[in-house]
Amino acid sequence: MGAGQAKPVSAGAIVVRPCHGLAEFERCVELQLAIWGGAELDAVPLPVFVITAEMGGQVLGAFDGARMIGFTLAFPGLHRQKPFLHSHMTAVLEEFRDRGVGRQLKLFQRSEALGRGIKLVEWTFDPLELRNAHFNIVRLGAIARRILPNHYGITSSPLHAGLPTDRLLAEWHLNSPRAVARAEGKESTRRASSNAKLVFVPANIGELKRTDPREAEKIQSRVREEFQHWFAEGYAVLGLENTPQGASYILETHASPETLPA
User: Fold this and answer.
1) Domains of the chain
2) Residue ranges of the alpha helices (H) in 134-249?
3) What's the whole-model pTM score?
4) Over the stretch 122-145, which tens digit does the pLDDT of each residue have?
């Protein structure tokens, strides 16, 4: 179940393909330290990249010529005896962001997984990071039905600002109509129904993390509690509404995640 047989894909000068050899795995370690910062103790070490590639996971690189400028790391797993991938990291150097590199990495991840009969990819993301939420829910068509409080503990990364590492669990059902539509470049048309529940995150949360950590933690606690309540009632995150003041997660009741409409 190796990733080595997937064909590289390219858009412009950027090529996405599986990583091979110690030099490329070492570059993945360098990139995560450069992008997330923090102590090396919190970083995924080189041997994990090597083993992941050998055991049926994914170590995928985005290359600008010979230079790796982003990567995805995903571990293999089982849910009810069905294979899935847990996508632990997707990272792109800042100078290459907003150029579609992250989307290239994820779409390659999707096609490589489907080529091996894997129909589900999961990953975690910070619900306070609204750009990531938009990318995951709106652009890729993932959903979320669980929140994991302080999932990784308090880390040394400056991006986490000393806050608990609350995470939503994204479920990317690769053959669902919504995931297929996003892979084909079709925009999401989902709007909140009259029965939808909304969880609001203010646009200035990043600034509050730096200037008023106590207020940021209050907002984080409120968001966590609202998600816990609505998830327990059978709701799932299916969309996101953006305003100048921030963004609201759209939660609705759902049937089978694999058949949710686009």
Assistant:
1) 9-188 (3.40.630.30)
2) 177-183, 205-211, 213-232
3) 0.90
4) 999 999 999 999 999 999 999 999
